[in-house]
Specification:
The complex is a heterodimer of chains A (402) and B (247). The two termini of chain A are 40 Å apart. Helix content of chain A is 37%, strand content 9%. Chain A is built from 15 helices and 10 strands. Chain A folds into 2 domains: 278 residues, TIM Barrel; 93 residues, no CATH class. Chain A has a 4-stranded parallel sheet. A two-stranded antiparallel ribbon of chain A has the order 1-2. Chain A has a two-stranded parallel sheet with strand order 7-8. By secondary structure, chain B is α/β, with parallel strands linked by helices. Chain B folds into 2 domains: 120 residues, no CATH class; 120 residues, no CATH class. In chain B, the strands form 2 sheets. Chain B has a 5-stranded mixed sheet with strand order 4-5-6-7-8, with helices on one face. A 3-stranded parallel sheet of chain B has the order 2-1-3, with no helix packed on it. In chain B, helix 3 runs antiparallel to helix 4 and helix 4 crosses helix 5. The chains are: A alpha/beta (402), B alpha/beta (247). The interface between A and B is large, with 60 and 58 residues.
Chain lengths: 402, 247
């Protein structure tokens, strides 16, 4: 099998991993460096950013996770790179500026530690033989020893493990060889060891959405716990794509992209907007509203807290306004030290009023007649603003600092 | 009569003229290069000022680093009347100092910040979108055609990233070439550089592998043309190996 064919097989097997960010490290090598904000090098036909050469070391695997294309019971073509082959492709792609670095994951062959040894070998070649300074994200193998986690973590910018499913029962059903203890052991290890020389860009994880019965509440609570317990930089949500047939798997026509989008929005609210999961979801409302984004949905339920006066309210309150993000809020705070803002000023500053206009006043004035400011009217308008099937967008915010 | 001042088209030339105007308290109607179309209602003045060696030092003493970077980015843009925007920004800085950048209700401020965002975004995008070809003797060669004059900004990036390679980047639209000799880069006029595109032995193989990889990573169930074009506008596609054929 030639290198080209291997690359196609092992890129195809790796593509369902959502993570592609390349930010958070400022490594400098003789050949290549990392860029603090990360750089996207291309965008594939599905609109996702390509910044890393995302491949598996091998797609052979001793595990049989139901949702996974590479499970051992699948009859697919298997391939395996040698460490030198991975170096050849990485260095040649990097030199031509196709990529920002390498994302390397692997199926598990023989044993977790045997697979780890191969990953370590590859990283040692890249860093010590070729003095490669580009970004490397590696997936640690669940069940690997601490000794090997330590060796691998010293060589890479990000090391992480995917939890895949938010509950233990989901894992039992769909990934019987995996358990969350093994994955969380890696997360805990990385959190405690993280330093300038060990996984400087931190860790992330991924959950598959829609392969099992979990509610959005289950998923977001899991995220909240993981952010809190392991200092994760990101949780990625990946709409389940039915690659296998199994009695335990749902038969989906299309991947639940809108749900994935709403989960990302909620994730953003947790990390940058001061929200807690309990503000947005509870046992009685365990799933997000597909029609309205989570912040607007929250605001509609708490109309008594609005309108916010743009010239007076705090930064935290600004962030609660639907349609006002971190950038706009900061601009407003900075500008209102010098002059009183009205609606025209907001527009000039690039603040989008499409949603915000129902929830704010400028110098006591509303942008539209007050009698329309009831939840029924606003919701009807917001749904239409948001409902533009031709413009379904996947959530992409690579440039936003993590 | 409205007075229009002419400068030589370089950034230092513009600073020299602005320094003269500010210290003589002259408010120009416009500042233009010599390619400017004259008309009856304008008085055109070319002072032919000599650019002194320390002109940028003088500006750095009066204006802070961030301000200088901002006006430089405006200078690199395609904006019509960018010179007069820079003049008013610096004039107002003398009055308001550091707090100026918060005063977005001033036209010159909102303009400068908006243009900065545009130029900065394009420079950042191009750090990813440059595609080098490996020529014989291992020289890396890329062509770009950006809206804004970001060749110097991205050259600084590649000077750090590919510091032990020889590379050449050509801005096709402006006919400017940046040449890096493993120590520093030099910006040269296109007609002074002759490039023969003799590819290295491995070049075709790796460019094919990249095209394979690009096609393979897309998840067909998630196909989203609009999203792709939003992040990677078509104007860049002629220089992007992996999508050129889709044009």
């Amino acid at each position: 099998m030639d290198l080209r064919e291997k690359l196609i097989i092992l890129a195809d097997s790796a593509k369902y991993d959502a993570s592609c960010s390349s930010s958070g490290s400022k490594r400098q090598g003789d050949f290549g460096n990392a860029h603090m904000a990360g750089i996207c090098h291309s965008f594939s036909a599905d609109g996702r950013c390509i910044s890393l050469l995302k491949i598996l070391l091998t797609n052979a695997c001793i595990f049989d996770c139901k949702y996974c294309l590479n499970r051992k019971s699948n009859n697919i073509k298997r391939a395996m790179f040698t460490p030198e082959e991975i170096c050849t492709i990485t260095l040649n792609f990097y030199k031509r500026n196709y990529i920002e670095g390498l994302f390397l994951s692997s199926g598990i062959i023989k044993s977790p530690d045997y697979t780890m040894e191969l990953l370590i070998k590859t990283m040692e070649l890249l860093r010590y033989k070729y003095h490669f300074g580009g970004y490397i994200h590696v997936k640690a193998i669940p069940g690997a020893s601490e000794y090997n986690l330590q060796r691998l973590g010293r060589l890479v910018d990000r090391m992480s493990a995917n939890i895949e499913l938010p509950t233990e029962s989901g894992l039992k059903l769909l990934a019987p060889d995996k358990n969350s203890d093994k994955v969380e052991k890696i997360m805990n290890y990385v959190k405690n060891k993280k330093s300038q020389n060990f996984v400087p860009a931190g860790q992330s994880t991924q959950m598959i959405i829609g392969a099992s019965q979990e509610t959005d509440l289950d998923i977001m609570q899991k995220s909240e716990n993981m952010y809190h317990n392991y200092n994760l930089k990101r949780v990625f949500y990946s709409a389940y794509i039915p690659v296998n047939q199994d009695k335990n798997l749902p038969s989906l026509q299309t991947p639940p992209l809108k749900r994935e989008n709403r989960l990302y929005q909620t994730d953003w609210l947790l990390r940058y907007y001061g929200f807690k999961v309990s503000d947005i979801l509870d046992e009685n409302n365990p799933n997000l509203n597909i029609l309205v984004d989570p912040k607007a949905s929250w605001a509609l339920k708490h109309l008594e807290e609005f309108p916010k006066e743009i010239n007076k309210c705090s930064y935290k309150e600004l962030l609660q306004v639907p349609g006002i993000g971190v950038t706009s809020a900061k601009r407003i705070i900075k500008s209102r030290q010098y002059f009183k803002l009205d609606f025209a000023d907001l527009k000039k500053m690039g603040v989008v009023l499409k949603r915000a206009k129902y929830f704010i006043t400028c110098n006591g004035r509303f942008s539209l007649n007050k009698e329309f400011l009831n939840s029924h009217f606003i919701e009807a308008n917001l749904v239409l603003e948001d409902h533009n099937p031709s413009q379904e967008k996947t959530y992409q915010m690579e440039l936003f600092h993590e | 009569m409205n007075k229009v001042y002419v400068y030589d088209g370089t950034f230092l030339g513009l600073l020299t003229l602005i320094r003269y105007l500010l210290s003589n308290k002259i408010k120009p109607y416009n500042i233009v290069t010599s390619e400017f179309q004259e008309n009856l209602f304008l008085e055109v003045i070319n002072l032919h000022l000599k650019i002194s060696n320390n002109i940028s030092d003088i500006f750095y003493q009066i204006f802070d680093k961030v301000t200088m970077k901002r006006v430089y980015y405006v200078f690199l843009s395609q904006e019509e009347n960018k010179e007069i925007i820079i003049y008013y920004y610096l004039l107002n800085y003398l009055k308001y100092g550091y707090s100026l950048s918060g005063m977005r209700n001033l036209k010159c401020v909102s303009k400068v910040l908006e243009i900065n965002k545009r130029v900065g975004n394009e420079a950042h995008k191009l750090k990813g979108f440059v595609r080098f070809k490996e020529l014989k003797k291992g020289i890396l060669y890329a062509e770009i055609n950006p809206d804004n004059d970001v060749l110097e900004i991205i050259s600084r990036h590649f000077k750090k990233r590919l510091k032990n390679e020889y590379w050449v980047i050509k801005d096709v639209g402006r006919n400017m070439v940046s040449i890096y000799d493993k120590k520093d880069f030099y910006l040269v006029l296109g007609e002074n550089v002759k490039i023969t595109e003799d590819l290295s032995a491995k070049e075709i193989e790796f460019s094919k592998m990249w095209q394979d990889f690009y096609k393979t990573v897309a998840i067909s169930e998630r196909r989203n043309e609009k999203c792709r074009r939003n992040f990677m506008p078509k104007k860049y596609w002629p220089y992007l190996l992996e999508v050129r054929d889709e044009l």
